[in-house]
Amino acid sequence: MVKQLLRLMTELSSHRWLSRLMGAFSHSRLSRFLIPTFIRTYHIPAAEAEKPSGEYHTLNEFFSRRLKPGMRQIAEGANAVASPVDALITAMGEIHSGTIMNVKGQDYLLEELLNHSPHQELYKKGFFFVLYLSPTDYHRIHSPLTGRRIESDYIRGRAYPVNEFGMRHMKSVLSRNERLITYIAGANGEAAVVKVGAMNVSSIRYSDEQADQWLIGDDLAYFEFGSTVVLLLENGTFTPRPGLAEGTKVRMGELLGTQSRP
């Protein structure tokens, strides 16, 4: 009964008008007074931020903050694939015939996640990571490899939570929420960076709308509040780093594995 009530509350709170309301407040000057409480509540390492916390004019501005130079080490090597975010790996593995298996007890079809894009053919036997960003984490998204933008796809959707409850008890959250997908072609294969919006967030933006190529670790996009990134690597090109597993905490720029053509 309690679980059903929570599910109902989640359904009701996932509407875009509520996300817009929360978004409007987080962009307001009043919200800046919550920044110190936000830092304390979520144990945010504010010293890593580009500016002192008192110089951010809104909560959203602080949440989407950049870091001081040198705060993250970027994986090196022509075939390196780096984590695009600070996050917890909540699922990872090979993609089987276009299906991402057992993400918090649910399977996901690539055709739904990628909104029936023709690009899905490149990933049907590829590799995936589901990377969850908590409120504590740094929320900018970086390029996982050096390459050029092949395509960008925005899918208007809902704003269900991507936390433990939402992922386990709401149906196909990753495929129903708002998504901004960037397809990047590197020297050794393609990658899809699927940025998934969340409850009271539902706002994903490119750092530079005009950019069409990136070096590994370059600033790509950011969330206005927390969410999840699904990283897809092209069929037969990716080898994960030994020892990497579900439940591992990774930092932006950390080596996830290597990519090479067969």
Automatic annotation (TrEMBL):
The UniProt record lists the keyword Zinc: no
Pathway involvement of the protein, from the record: Lipid metabolism; Phospholipid metabolism; phosphatidylethanolamine biosynthesis
Enzyme Commission no: 4.1.1.65
UniProt xrefs under Pfam families: PS_Dcarbxylase
Gene Ontology annotations of biological process type: phosphatidylethanolamine biosynthetic process
Cofactor(s) in the UniProt record: pyruvate
Keywords, ordered alphabetically: Decarboxylase, Lipid biosynthesis, Lipid metabolism, Lyase, Phospholipid biosynthesis, Phospholipid metabolism, Pyruvate, Zymogen
Lineage top rank: taxon: Bacteria
Keyword Lipid metabolism applies: yes
Entries under InterPro entries matching the protein: PS_Dcarbxylase (IPR003817), PSD-B (IPR033177)
GO molecular function, one term: phosphatidylserine decarboxylase activity
Protein name: phosphatidylserine decarboxylase
